[in-house]
Structures are given as structure tokens and as C-alpha cells.
Amino acid sequence: MRILFIGDVYGKPGRKAVRHFLPRLREEHRPDVVLANGENMAGGAGITRDTAREMFDLGVDALTTGNHVWDQREAIEYLDEEPRIVRPLNWPPGTPGRGWTDVAVNSATLTVVNVQGRVFMKSLDDPFRGMDALLKELAGRETIFVDVHAEATGEKQALGFYLDGRVSALVGTHTHVPTADARVLPKGTAYITDVGMVGPRDSIIGSDPTAIIERYLTQMYRRLEMGRGPVMFNAVVIDVAADGHATSIQLVQDLLTG
Ligand SMILES: [Fe+2]
Ligand SMILES: [Fe+2]
User: Fold this and answer.
1) 68 catalytically annotated
2) What's the gap in Å between 20 CA and the centre of ligand 1?
3) pTM over 0.90
4) How far is the CA of 149 from the centre of ligand 2 (A)?
5) Which residue in 244, 256, 240, 238 sits closest to 29, CA to CA?
6) Which of 67, 75, 137, 216 has its CA 20 to 30 A from that of 130?
């Protein structure tokens, strides 16, 4: 099974870049399934019905999210209705939505999981034990993809080695900056610390630098604006064998100018 996973899609520029690159990538890489992180699709903060529908219409099969999942109020209801969107599984019990979903891929099933880190982030439930419990529940499923949405490199690497051989792929999102460490771990899990985003290059994590620098200089609230410039496109292509072990992970990076 070949999986194309697109990093955090940031606002309108990000959605435009997905629209631009996805048809070409389908021809070039022939993925069996396309996934994307959608936590920043609505103006950089959160996910809405319209922005999600836009991705599904482009042929994205399922969306993961992260800490920004609830930034748009409508997501609270929407995530309960839409099985193709997952939010981190380790939010407290009773949180709307779901932490994992099954996607039919040809004659197989891909289980898509989202989990969030706790270092320099909200104190959610333990992602390590949360994954242990989930994998028990998922016993019998061969192909499992995990989007680990976390700030700290070390926490993502720890989850990578903790789950090595137990999931097909574990890829990082959230920092919006791609890392150069994509590889298959010793027991067969495809891994990268962060895929990076699909969003404006002349930005700080997607936002225009001016207001963010002001926030640092004054320690006061400043409204953020969309970043500018060419749009970075960051994704990975992962090959998974029939037994659920990954055989390769490859970066797919491009730039949309004009
Ligand atoms: Fe993000
Ligand atoms: Fe995030």
C-alpha cells in the first residue's frame, strides 16, 4: 500500500497548494490513499465543514488534526458527524470526535490514528499508554498509520521507537518545519519527526512575522495575519508491505510561486 501524507495544510494558501500539486503527485507517485493534516485549514486555525469538504472533493481520503482542532466552534459538532476526520485520541474521555478511523484502500484497510504530545503542550492523557490501549483494541489490523502531533523532537522520537514494529508508520506534524530524518526504523515503522506544513514560506509557522515579532517584543496580544510569499508543499510517500511493515518513506517537497 502506498500512502501519501500531506503535512499541516495552512489556510487558503495551503488549500490552494494542495489543489495545485495533488493531481500531479497522483500521476507521479500513484498513491493508494491520500491523507492530510487539517488542523490549520480554516485561516490557519482549526477546521470547518467547508474546508474539509474542499479536501475530500480533491480526493483526500481522511484528515488528521491536532491541538488546533477546536479553534472553530463548528468542529465540535462536525467531528462527531464525520468519520473521515480524527482528532488526537488522548484528549480526555468524553471529548467529541474520534481518535482513529478505518479507511478502505482497494481490498485492504488502513487504520488512521492521531495522537498528541504533552511536552510544551496541553497536559492531555499519556500518549504512550493511550497507544498501548488502542493497539490492543486494534488487534488484527495490519496497516496502521499514526500522525503524532507534538512539539518536542525527543517525545516524537520516543513514541517512534516505542511503537516501532507495532504500527506501519508514525509521522510527526505540528511544528510546520520539515525535518531531515525520514527513515524506516529497525523493526519496520516508517518515521519522520516532522513532515512540515503546506503554507506560506515567508511566515513564522504560517503567520506573517510582523505581529509575532511584536508579541515577543511587547509580550502583549497582537492579532495574527496570514504569511506571504511562495507556498511550501511538504508531504511524505510511504510504502507498506502486505504484512504491515513499511519498506520506504520518501519526502515530497515543492514550492508554489505566483
Ligand atoms: Fe499545525
Ligand atoms: Fe499543531
Assistant:
1) yes
2) 20
3) yes
4) 6
5) 238
6) 75
